[in-house]
């Protein structure tokens, strides 16, 4: 939690309280439904919350913009980003209903008004968004094939819209087909051994024709 306060010094009291509440919420839910691996739950703030917030080091989401989190699992990266950007609309989806049940409970407990969660397969999403975020769902070629038509044609965002994907390891092969993809090392922002091999991939997408 200290690292979050250090990295994001302009949080309001309400946002700080929301981040603080995550610990007990996820501990309680994880005892009932396994949404976070047992070995990671004690390092929730580093391995899940701060990791999710690495996206904010690359991209600031403006008021009124829309963000889809594909395969959100227990709510990552969508929930930490929704706390950080309360004026941005987040839509969190996962194919597994029990994961969405946990995400909805977290949304309700934190009174997050800017988040909607739904059981949904990525391929079946109908709406279009300014940004798509995700962590550890599938390889980049499959991921792009699922969501490439879901980026808004007329984004109201001044910055480049597209995909922000959290992944680890060597991505050279997966990204071969995407010459415009940019990889950012999370260890350049956050000093923790855990982030050594972790990256944010920014893939700006062409507007839907
Ligand atoms: C490894 S988990 C990652 C969960 C979360 N993003 C995180 O990093 O903690 C992958 C998640 O993607 C979901 N998933 C897989 N294929 C999907 C699809 N086609 N549409 C939506 N969700 C999908 C799975 O149900 C699972 O919850």
TrEMBL record:
Q: Which domain of life is it from?
A: Bacteria
**Where in the sequence is the signal peptide annotated?**
none
- What Enzyme Commission number(s) apply to this enzyme? 2.1.1.-
Which SUPFAM superfamilies did the record assign?
S-adenosyl-L-methionine-dependent methyltransferases
GO terms for cellular component: cytosol
Keyword annotations:
Cytoplasm, Methyltransferase, rRNA processing, S-adenosyl-L-methionine, Transferase
Name of the protein described by the UniProt record: Ribosomal RNA small subunit methyltransferase G
> Top-down, what is the taxonomic lineage of the species of origin?
Bacteria, Pseudomonadati, Bacteroidota, Flavobacteriia, Flavobacteriales
Gene symbol?
rsmG
């Amino acid at each position: 939690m200290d690292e979050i306060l250090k990295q994001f010094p302009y949080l309001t009291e309400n946002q700080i309280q929301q981040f603080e509440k995550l610990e007990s919420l996820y501990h309680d839910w994880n005892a009932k439904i396994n949404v976070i691996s047992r070995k990671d739950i004690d390092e929730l703030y580093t391995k899940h919350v701060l990791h999710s917030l690495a996206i904010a080091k690359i991209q600031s989401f403006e008021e009124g913009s829309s963000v889809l989190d594909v395969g959100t699992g227990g709510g990552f990266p969508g929930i930490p980003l929704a706390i950080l950007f309360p004026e941005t609309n987040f839509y969190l989806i996962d194919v597994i209903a029990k994961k969405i049940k946990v995400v909805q409970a977290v949304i309700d407990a934190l009174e997050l008004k800017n988040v909607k969660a739904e059981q949904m397969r990525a391929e079946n999403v109908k709406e279009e968004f300014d940004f798509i975020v995700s962590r550890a769902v599938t390889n980049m070629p499959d991921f792009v094939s699922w969501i490439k038509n879901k980026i808004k044609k007329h984004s109201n965002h001044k910055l480049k819209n597209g995909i922000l994907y959290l992944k680890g390891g060597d991505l050279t092969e997966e990204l071969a087909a995407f010459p415009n993809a940019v990889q950012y090392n999370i260890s350049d922002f956050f000093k923790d051994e855990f982030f050594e091999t972790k990256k944010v991939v920014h893939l700006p997408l062409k507007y839907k024709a």
